[in-house]
Amino acid sequence: MRRRPNLTIRGDVNIDRVLFNGTTATGVLAADGTAYRGREVILSGGTYGSPAILLRSGVGPADELTALGIGIVANVPVGQRLHDHPFFYNAYALAPGYLEMTPAVGSLLWTASSEAAGDELDLHITVTHLLDGSYSPTGGAIVLATALVQPESRGTLKLASRNPDDAPLIDNRFLATGRDARRMLEGVKLGRAIARNPVFAPFTAGELIPGDAVADDTLAQAIAANLAIYGHPTSTVPMGGSSDPWAVVDSAGAVKGVSGLRVIDASIIPDVPSTAINLTVIMLAERVYQRVYAA
After folding, report:
1. Where are the domains of the chain?
2. Of 12, 158, 204, 283, which alpha carbon lies 20 to 30 A from 68's?
3. E-assigned strand segments in 31-103
4. Among 3.30.870.10, 1.10.540.10, 3.30.410.40, 3.20.20.60, what is the CATH number of 86-152+174-229?
């Protein structure tokens, strides 16, 4: 791939924005002022990077852009549908005699909560050595970490400023609905039940997070105060049809309201998959290539 004569790779280039002639993309501008021109621009900056570039380019919600003094090229809902899996580390100290941390063992469980819709498997429990053993008084730890993998709650991504060196403002709004909060609580309780099962319990020497002192009737507050991110963000530049009010790109990644500009990365997935997103992104990119570029 790297030997192809029509491919040039440049590293350590921070892209500021897309360059437009009217509403036609003509290239990109780097933060150091270098312009890179092309007949078409394809953004693959990921769920956080691509929307930030679009917003700095004038492609996004008109009110947000106007507030930052950015001229509007296309008024589309960039950054309004951020989707990711909330994650909670239910962690345990390993019992003496069972402290081996490598190789890491693992078991993955997908199951349905009591509020699952249809046949969806909306809860995921990861049983593995995700927590460093140094956090455990015994020198070994294991987690039964819970994720809500079919969440309703949506977050936002907005610009902190026009400066491409400033990270965007990310608000996941995890557990923003009552149903999400209840399902997450149910998942953590299930993880606790597994850890306390007579078959599993002999391998542990006490709960580290949230801790044995946290009873089930106060568990919801402990979860809300200690949520983590599973790192599967999607949907800040979501794909959709012409009648979808949240759609920013079409089914081939073309940005609506402009020409010569596509986004091909996890940001265009309209709903987060119930698992890690890497294979979905590869499938999506290959499908767009087949539809648009294959001879």
Report:
1. 15-82+233-293, 86-152+174-229
2. 12
3. 35-37, 41-43, 59-60, 74-75, 86-88, 91-94
4. 3.30.410.40
Give the CA radius of gyration of the chain: 22
Cβ contacts of residue 68 below 8 Å, gap of 6+? 159, 161, 162
Where are the alpha helices (H) located in the chain, listed in sequence order? 46-56, 62-67, 178-196, 219-225, 278-288
Q: Which two tokens stand for residue 177?
A: 């609905």
The answer to whether residues 234 and 155 touch, using CB atoms and an 8 Å cutoff, is: no
Query: Does residue 232 have an active-site annotation?
Result: yes
The tens digit of pLDDT for each residue in 178-195 reads 999 999 999 999 999 999
Q: Cα–Cα distances in Å, from 120 out to 150, 151, 225, 279?
A: 8, 11, 27, 19
Q: Does the fold of domain 86-152+174-229 match that of domain 15-82+233-293?
A: no
Which tens digits make up the pLDDT trace of 7-51? 899 999 999 999 999 999 999 999 999 999 999 999 999 999 999
For the chain, the first-to-last Cα distance in angstroms comes to 18
The arrangement of secondary structure in 15-82+233-293, i.e. its CATH architecture, is: 3-Layer(bba) Sandwich (3.50)
Kindly report the pTM of this predicted structure. 0.94
Q: For residue 219, is pLDDT > 70?
A: yes
| Active-site annotation holder among 83, 85, 129, 232 | 232
